[in-house]
Amino acid sequence: MPVIRVSRRELESLLEVKLTISDIYKVLTRLKCEVERVENDEIEYEATSDRPDLYSVEGLSRAMRPWLGLAWKPHTIIRSGVTGYAENIPERPYVALAIVKDLELSSEAISQIMGLQEKIAQTYGRSRRKVSIGLYDLDILKPPIFYKLVDPYKTKFRPLGEKELMSLREILKRTEKGLIYGHIIEKMDKFPVLQDSEEKILSLVPVINNEECKITENTRHVLIDATGTSLEDVVNAVTIMATSIAERSKTRLIEQVLVAYSTGLVIGAPRVKGAVIDVNVTDVNNLLGISLTVNDIKDFLEKYHYYKILRIGNDILTVEAPIYRIDVKSWVDIAEDVAIAYGYDKLGFEAQSLAPSTSIGRIHPVEYFSRIIRDIMVGLGFHEVANYIMSNRYVQLELLGAPWEMFLVENPRSERFEGLRIWLTPGLLLTLLENADKYSRLKIFEIGDVVIPDETFETRARVDRRLSLLIYHEKATLTDGLIHIKALMKELGLEVSFSKGLMPGFLPERTALINSCGENIGFVGEVHPKILLKLELKNPVVIAEISLSKILSNCFK
Fold first, then answer.
1. Residue whose C-alpha is closest to residue 200's, from 120, 274, 259, 145
2. pLDDT tens digits for range 488-523
3. Is the CA virtual torsion 403, 407, 411, 417 positive or negative?
4. Per-residue pLDDT averaged across 22-33, rounded?
5. Are residues 296 and 315 in the same domain?
6. What order of strands is seen across the sheet that includes strand 34-39?
7. 431 close to 358: Cβ distance less than 8 angstroms
8. Sequence-separated (6 or more) residues with CB below 8 Å from residue 264
9. Which pTM was predicted?
10. At which of 269, 286, 302 does a domain end?
11. Which of 286, 317, 351 is the last residue of a domain?
12. What's the rounded Cα separation, in Å, for the pair 511 and 545?
């Protein structure tokens, strides 16, 4: 969850009211934000990753208004006379543009806007790989705006914060942003830029903007761009930026800019319509365990700016979400807003009146077995680590060259967590990587669940509890792994045997399958030297992974 810091004075200025400490804590809780501290003029809070519209004081003030009994201040979106044109850029094909007019900016306002830009690019934009954002003083530019590829050696401009002209290639090597983000485009023959009609460079995408085009306290009209790999994401980014910056506008006027692509596609941003969703009142009540009417739900949703109620029936509402609420995908998301508005405290109180349990609670067999395994591993001199069940394709598949499949999240909020892990080994290897510079010898283990695609199950998924152990030192060999597996199985009172096997990322002649109770329960082996070289690990690595679920079901029936 991103940590946001805003000026209390700025927040009160935008709201035009004085806030008490109680107001701040009470309202931010209703917005799924966790207040870290309120000290002097600074408010520090954590916002959930699915609400980037709350990453600045502008968006926060807008969201707080209904909870403080303040009137809604709508923005106006009109079609702009400014247009954009986009070349075919396969590596980063999409661009969206918008304009916000009649701004009144201070140094604090610029700081907040730039902070919002950077936080969206870092979180939602996956450190600019998926989406990057730029802001420019429109009065300095000569539209239309062009998104195109140019020669990185011949094209020059003065990067933001620099005093001299540099070629695009020089920018990657000589500026801080170039060193951080240049890897995204450095292998391209030509580099993507934004230019105006006089060929003035606005930005080297997605690295750095032009110093001459930056916004200042004198800026009155701002051009916003977002470029990236997903059309939906760049439109989302521009929509959030434009609607947030409009909170600083005297007229709250936003201009939708049309961008014409070489393919014939024409895209306008920001979007003028939010997600339209049918909400069944019975479904909401069943989910939350309460009894609300259609009008109750309507009133609660207005607290979150769902002012466009398109249809009201006896048991159905058709609502349109605010255009900046990119987290609203289905009626369940709307039900969550209803639940928060109703009050989790009230839901919790009402849940206490439910009928008492008719059965006695007990520890699940797999958890009991995991505790036994944990004690044995600690006794063998291993240290336990814990990784997330969520992972990504690079770690789970590409790192070791695994030719398998994994379940992916349809709309991941972080590139780090885009799917469910299918084995523990890669995570354990990355844990070693984070600690190898501190220790020359390590023995670590992890016990956790993996989720395997399996068509034989009704859910097409099989959850498997596993143990993975790792041994790292200058003389580590397969023998180390075999000895520890034998010791573990002996403690469990089980026979074990080994046979030749292959695993992706492991040495073919130094890998063995582990067999017990008539079934293969896992593997043990030496990580291939080419993997160690890629990860810059100096010593050999031995890893074993065992299915505790298989042991439990086959050996302890």
1. 145
2. 999 899 999 999 999 999 999 999 999 999 999 999
3. negative
4. 92
5. yes
6. 3-7, 42-46, 34-39
7. no
8. none
9. 0.68
10. 269
11. 351
12. 12
